[in-house]
Amino acid sequence: MPSPKNTICIWYDKDAEAAARFYAEVFPDSEVLAVHHAPSDYPSGKAGDVLTVDFTVAGIPCMGLNGGPAFQHSEAFSFQIATDDQEETDRYWNAIVGNGGRTSACGWCKDKWGINWQITPRTLTEAMAAGGAEAKRAFEAMMEMGKIDVAKIDAARRG
């Protein structure tokens, strides 16, 4: 199978394989495709260490690079996972936060490797696309939330 033309490269300190395996367990259409070992020593590792991991997250091709502690993640990059209902929202949120991650605001959380996730129910994105008063009400409701509460967003949409 040819490699994709565009791949998201995510820098990890040293746990790219563990992160990729976690994502493959949590999100559908996700898998670890290959694990590549360093052919020789490098600044933050030794020959034989896991250097890169090819994987997918919800169908998106990614490569995890064990590059050492030189760079940290920020909210400037996040995965946004669309959910269909509260059960799915809770499942993903709880998996990330319950595995050493931490909560944030407005549907955002961070996994234990520092990668940011937006767990976003489709009802919220639909409200925003509707525009006008419906979007304003849904947006204002969202601004009060950590994990998104689907029932509260739906109530806000109705006014």
Task: Report what the structure shows.
The protein is of the alpha/beta class. The protein has 2 domains: 59 residues, 2,3-Dihydroxybiphenyl 1,2-Dioxygenase, domain 1 (Roll); 81 residues, 2,3-Dihydroxybiphenyl 1,2-Dioxygenase, domain 1, CATH 3.10.180. It is built from 5 helices and 8 strands, in the order E-H-E-E-E-E-H-E-E-E-H-H-H. The strands form 2 sheets. Strands 1-4-3-2 form a 4-stranded mixed β-sheet, with helices on one face. It has a 4-stranded mixed β-sheet with strand order 5-8-7-6. Strand 3 and strand 4 form a beta hairpin. Helix 4 packs antiparallel against helix 5. The longest helix has 13 residues. The chain is elongated. The relative contact order is 0.14. The mean pLDDT is 96.
Q: How would you describe this structure in keywords?
A:
about 160 residues; alpha/beta; 2,3-Dihydroxybiphenyl 1,2-Dioxygenase, domain 1; 2 domains; four-stranded mixed sheet; 5 helices; 8 strands; about 35% helix; about 30% strand
Produce a short descriptive summary.
This protein has 5 helices and 8 strands. It is an alpha/beta fold. It has a 4-stranded mixed sheet with strand order 1-4-3-2, covered by helices on one side. A 4-stranded mixed sheet has the order 5-8-7-6.
SSE pattern: EHEEEEHEEEHHH
Count structural domains. 2
Q: How many distinct beta strands?
A: 8
Main beta sheet: 4 strands, mixed
Helix fraction, binned, reads: 25-40%
> Which regions contain 5 or more consecutive residues with pLDDT less than 50?
none
Shape: elongated
The tally of helices reads 5
Rounded mean pLDDT is 96
The CATH class name of the largest domain reads: Alpha Beta
CATH superfamily of the largest domain: 2,3-Dihydroxybiphenyl 1,2-Dioxygenase, domain 1
What's the N-to-C terminus distance?
Answer: 50 Å
Q: DSSP strand (E) fraction?
A: 25-35%
Task: Tell me the CATH architecture of the largest domain.
Answer: Roll
Q: What is the third-level CATH name, the topology of the largest domain? A: 2,3-Dihydroxybiphenyl 1,2-Dioxygenase, domain 1
Backbone structural class = alpha/beta
Write out the strand line-up for the largest beta sheet, numbering strands in chain order. Answer: 1-4-3-2
